Amino acid sequence: MLRLLRGAGIETVYVGGCVRDGLLGTWPADFDMLIAAPLPDAQALLSAAGFPSNILASWLGPVRTLVRGEQFDLIHAWPGCPTLSFAQSVDWYVDQADFTINAMYLTTEGGLTDRHGGAADLDAGIVRFMGDPCEALRANIRQIVRYFRFLAWYGKGTPHGPSLEAAIADARHMADTDSERARNEAIKLLSAPRPYDVLSLMHQRGVLKYALGVAIEGTDWLERLARIERILGVPSGWQVRLGALLLSACMSPDAALEHVVQYWQLEPKHAERVALIVDYALCLDPTAAEPAPGAPDHIPDAAVLRDALLLRWLYEADSEAVIPHYMRALAAIQVAPDM
User: Fold this and answer.
1) Which 8-state DSSP code applies to residue 98?
2) Would the pTM of this model clear 0.90, i.e. be above it?
3) What is the pLDDT of residues 143-196, one digit of tens each?
4) Which CATH class is domain 2-122?
5) What is the CATH number of domain 133-332?
6) Domain ranges in the chain?
């Protein structure tokens, strides 16, 4: 695809998350690329060469294509101002990024441009808004949930003070974020390798309730789940972590889940799975790894049973004596290891 674009004289650079992930040594989920060509022209070129592609949303795109199973989004660098050079358009584009760690670009030859200190922030684990944090949030209040998600994934040590305080000051506006975005960002936050410090920070500063749609009493359950994950050596899934939060809520788990489902507009399949995990966790016999009398009639699949067993372990996580029981019970459940 790159040879095709070069052959047509179309300048191209990688931008955003794929550059950040590359610097971290992780494979990006997708690739954003700025191109010096109108999107209909780019789509026509790709289609003629046999690349499946379509323009998303509107004429502004991007053009999305798949290359060997990898997703590439091609974006026209500022189509509204043809007097700018491609380099100027790229600079303008990255200046609109949310965080410094997303404000870098990479040429197809491997040359990195970082005018905002993003690489240094990434190495230090600093999640920092571009420019003045308060102004950045006034321009796009939806970035608040995203900030905490990025803090969970990329933050290390003490957060960048001005960025954290700006996000906390405007945290009540998380409720104004559309439900789909709020849900997606919150699920990604809960899916971070180790989100517990950030979740605890959010609770301590009174903002976690705005992300969840329900208040919790404390973070003891989260701390226990973190300990269990250390014992197992693998992270649990976001649904288990949400279950732990529901068990910490200032209301019954069922009522808390109803609030979250409504607040996030959670898909029924996910809501039903979380409900099953919590229900089984509350009535599971950990020594037998099977439901006790009074359990729901529905027989869960192995993954639900495993996740319920993890939640049940939270009740006794402070006791070293129970570890062998749970390890044996988990080992007896035939399910893929990726939780």
Assistant:
1) S
2) no
3) 999 999 999 999 999 999 999 999 999 998 888 878 888 899 999 999 999 999
4) alpha beta
5) 1.10.3090.10
6) 2-122, 133-332
